[in-house]
Protein 1
Amino acid sequence: MSRRRSWSAVRAGVTDWAIAVCLAATLLVTGLSGQHSATDLDLLGYALLVAGGLALAARRRAPVPVLAVTGLCAVGYQAAGFDVPAVAYLFAVYAAVRAGHRTLTIAASVAMLAALPLAALASGLHDTGEAFAQARGALELAWLVAAGAAGEALRQAERRADEAERTREETARRRADEERLHIARELHDSLTHQISIIKVQAEVAVHVARRRGEQVPEALLAIQAAGREATRELRATLEALRDDDTAPPRGLDHVAELVERARAIGLDATLTVEGRAHGVPAAVDRTAYRIVQESLTNIARHASATTASVRIDCRPDALAIRIDDDGKATPDTAPVPGVGLLGMRERVTALGGRLRAEPRGEGGFTVQAELPVEQSS
């Protein structure tokens, strides 16, 4: 997403410069066609014609300064005796109105309409009517209104498009939340009760067999263990499905709690944080928490590990996360991607990041994630 926006910005910059250069050349040619002599005042007029056109290269980034520069250049070359239309100023009006500076643009345009006749008089015209006619030709009121109207129309269209995009995203998110909660209810109603019955019956059977001094069948012990594991997995799945935006947000500030919880169950867990997590987007913040949570849960359940380390590196452009353990995984053992690992990968990929989950060369398992961080200006 960020790469696409960068390419779009580069393309827009090239387009702006192309328009600015072409317009500057057009204004210069128009000025040269007036058969002016090469006096200092005429050279100043040529420079103002070119400067007014080239200033449009910055119209997206700084529409108000460009409006001022193009307006002053138009007044300047009119005062130097160049009867050239203020086309660059019309482009600047369009850009300023599109950026939302309507009141300022109207005030500047009124000032331009008053200044151009004075500039025409200063150029040597002694006939007031002729000066006003030249000023009117330089900045036709109809074209000025059209430029402002075009900028306002495009601004409104962009605003409606942004609003429609936000509405679509909110609708899609609401539908996803409703579907997720519906699935959670269905799982709870259809599976939780049945799994609980299996788990309770297996535990009762094991308890009765042991009280009688009988040998407990391996199949019964396997059913008991599977029932407990299925209950835990189902509870975790239901919690994940019910975790929506109405729940208190969990992020990097809560990772220390996950590490403390891992220590409480006997895992020697450590946490190292490099840099300052300032201005991290909410989605990245939540995803980082989920990665650490899922990794520590997998270590506690499946890794047979005694130690685990969590390292978070807060860089200006990315958030790097690494979780290592000293469990039973070996380099020649291919990891079996479970639901938790697939969920982590989906979260990271959705944010444009990268995830590696594989056995370490010295034994154990490592999970490494890198999430891009786009700082707001």
Protein 2
Amino acid sequence: MVYRIHFTVQDLARTRVAEAPMPLHELELAARALQSRSQPARLDAWRHRARAQLSVQARVVLALMPAVGCSPGFLSPTKVGAVEELLEQVRSTPREQVRASLLETAHCHPSLPAWTRRLADDASLFAELCTGLSDLHTCLLAPHAAQFTERLAADRTLRLHQLLTGGVEQLLTQANPQWMRWNPPVLEVRMVNGADRDLYLDGEGFLLIPSMFCTRAIVTDGRPVSVSYPACPDQRPSALIAPASVPGQACSSGVSMLLGRTRTTVLATIAEHQGCSTKELAARAGIAPASASEHATVLREAGLIRSLRHRNSMLHSLTPLGRVLLNASQGG
């Protein structure tokens, strides 16, 4: 069964990729992934660690964020912002909105816990739920915040390249081909919950949201309509679940490699032309393609750039660590 998302010319012109992380939306996707059994090689180590750290309040929140099905929209807004500010907005949600959101959720998730009927009117219970939401973020997302930001930046580099070389059609075709199919002017999104529905964008545009924890495609029927999809699915699985590294440790051996003039030029070129291919990098840096590839490999192994394979090309972009090091070198 599928969601059929109908585009107009205006919607195609207003199709875009999320430019910054949406922490609470990503938290919902992480909560779904935690309760799913999909992609065991990629996620089971993370699941095991996270489950051992969940507080009682965090486990309560999971009851409203099932592996499959809908969840109350007020808990996971598709908004950019600091986690603390977004959590405060959730705490300030009008009770009428809470009640309406729960009623809507109950239509597609009839087995909601009985205590949810009191949630809109019981201030103490609602406060406990918000505490659980904060605990859930601390457990599931906070340890991977840097990886989350880097992964989304890498995915945006890839999507920008697709948009520049093939337009919106290539973007929609290649963003998530396992779960999404572009059949102009309709984007068909395969659903695991059996939902079958037509959504009309009506000129309000469409938003693609890359996600570190999404394992399929998740449709959010808001304004604009959005679809979350796995960011950079071709990257090594360990990149998602590995603990964040300490910058000083990551670059200790790489700094000495970067003292040469040519490699510094390569790093600066990537900084100025994010998402450039190896061939473009060689041309802009004035070196041979083989040399550009060799220098990019060293920079990547030092954690200073990230490289994504797109068809027959490698696309290079700067990591936050690379930017810090480059800024320091430029500062003398």
Protein 3
Amino acid sequence: MTEEPSAAQRPTLEAVAARAGVSRATVSRVVNGGPGVREELADKVRHAVDELGYVPNHAARSLVTRRHDAIAVVIAESETRVFADPFFALQLRGISRELTAHDVQLVLLLTEGRDDHERVGRYLSGGHVDGALVFSLHLDDPLPGIIRRAGLPTVFGGRPGWQDADAGERSAPYVDCDNRGGAREAVRHLVGLGRRRIAHITGALDQTSAVDRLDGFRDALADAGPHLIEEGDFTFAGGERAMRRLLDAEPELDAVFAANDLSASGALRVLRERGRSVPDDVAVVGFDDMLLVAEQTEPPLTTVRQDIEEMGRLMARMLLRDRNGEGLAACPSSVVLPTALVRRASA
């Protein structure tokens, strides 16, 4: 069994320089991604690194470059919620792929309560990461202020809904989808099917995505009564509870637009329990087009597609541009991706 070399046995910058026939400073610039080295010399250094098995000392490298090659991904939800909802897996996959392509580590931080906020604040202020990607914020969340005080470049997932008057926060870059337009298209589709008693199961209304989707519902159905709107929380169980309340309040409803696919799948379960045929009695449309949910419901779910993985990639790309010195000013202050209705059997 081969033993791992000790720190004293590991190749040094000086050894790499001697093998490549260049100065130690040239090796340092190549290893740390610095400019000003001719390509032929850089190739010699890279060959010497491979031959000797040189591994950079990341602590020393950070002192030179002031970079940590790590990005914090902060999700303002509990572990239970994050690991039960495929939305987060898709967004994390997009972020991870982009960071991996640039040899940058992902550090996942979850927040559920005050203790978590304090812990995350200490970590972000401790100089461990080069920036933060933050999503699933709630309107009263202290995270934006915590991150601002840490002085980290930040990109948000979803349109921020700042409650304070800090213009710097309000102008923070973000990536989102056209929540309002997508919701409007979903409801207009139901209207086009001849449905007249259309209800809405909202998401958690302390999040801007849920508010925007409710606004889109109201754009298409300005005269919808309050008994046709029930607040959910973007979960399967929340969709079940809201669907039961809607049926109790309006037994003759003939369509439901749910704020996400998980809520829609909960609504479908209750409709089956109540003996309602989908889509004959009640048509159902969701939002997200998460294939693990939308293609597995019975019947398969008509839904509004947003490219969740691409949103994650764009967030990471914007932050990496800032880290690499291009500045977030080189990117749009926000990116809003289009949505599209995907028609399946439920509506």
